[in-house]
Specification:
By secondary structure, the chain is mainly beta. It has one domain (10-100): Jelly Rolls (Sandwich), CATH 2.60.120. The chain is built from one helix and eight strands, in the order E-E-E-E-H-E-E-E-E. It has a four-stranded antiparallel sheet with strand order 1-8-3-6, with no helix packed on it. A four-stranded antiparallel sheet has the order 2-7-4-5. It is globular and about 40 Å long.
């Protein structure tokens, strides 16, 4: 049985989409191996957040994204947070980002 080692801290950040229809890339953060990066749509969002692995795939008018309503979250196994792009159907809305560090 593999033994899980607790990490020493928690990484938290927020990212907003300034203009709906203009995806933004998450800031660079190296995600520890075996750790899931959680992206959660902010609770006070009124629209949807779209998440993708590129600007084109995150675009809220496309079909290649994952969609999050307010308060919904999804985990991603990525090496760096900047592998993820987000867009919003409402300008100024965004996500909270967190993982063990």
């Amino acid at each position: 049985m593999a033994r899980h080692t607790n990490l020493t801290s928690i990484y938290t950040a927020q990212k907003n989409v300034i203009t709906s229809g203009t995806p933004v890339q998450l800031d660079a953060f190296s995600v520890p191996s075996g750790t899931t990066l959680i992206i959660q749509a902010k609770n006070n969002n009124t629209g949807n957040i779209t998440v993708g692995n590129s600007s084109d795939n995150a675009l809220n008018t496309g079909t290649a994204h994952t969609k999050l309503a307010n308060g919904q979250a999804k985990g991603f196994q990525v090496e760096n947070a900047n592998a993820i792009w987000i867009d919003s159907t409402v300008s100024g809305e965004g996500v909270e980002i967190y993982c063990e560090n």
